[in-house]
Amino acid sequence: MNNSIQHYIVKTAQTDWQPLIEKGIHYEGVFVKSLHFDEAKQRSTTILLKFEPGASYPYHNHPAGEELFVLDGEAMVEGAVLHKGDYLFTPVNFKHAVKTETGCTILFVVPEEVEIL
Prior knowledge:
0% of the residues lie in helices and 59% in strands. It is an all-beta fold. The protein has one domain (31-116): Jelly Rolls (Sandwich). Strands 1, 2, 3, 4, 5, 6, 7, 8, 9 and 10 form a 10-stranded antiparallel beta sheet that branches. The relative contact order is 0.23.
């Protein structure tokens, strides 16, 4: 374990947005910044996602649930509109899609990899 606090800080303003590409699929208009990479799982478990206006993420399952917090804009999840400052906890095996008309930035905590349905 590294004992320097600097090792654990992510300067998001100094990090570039990357296109979201999972298993070779490029999700147009969706960009990601990794905040925490879990070495044991070999994947990011805490991320920022930025959706451009009109962008979406397909219907999927969360085997271990998820948490999300809307930092900016608005997102639609299963008919609910989430605005800046809204928080959503989804339980184990919760299925949904995400889309936005206006664009948004969301903080996600995703303990296990999602399953596209």
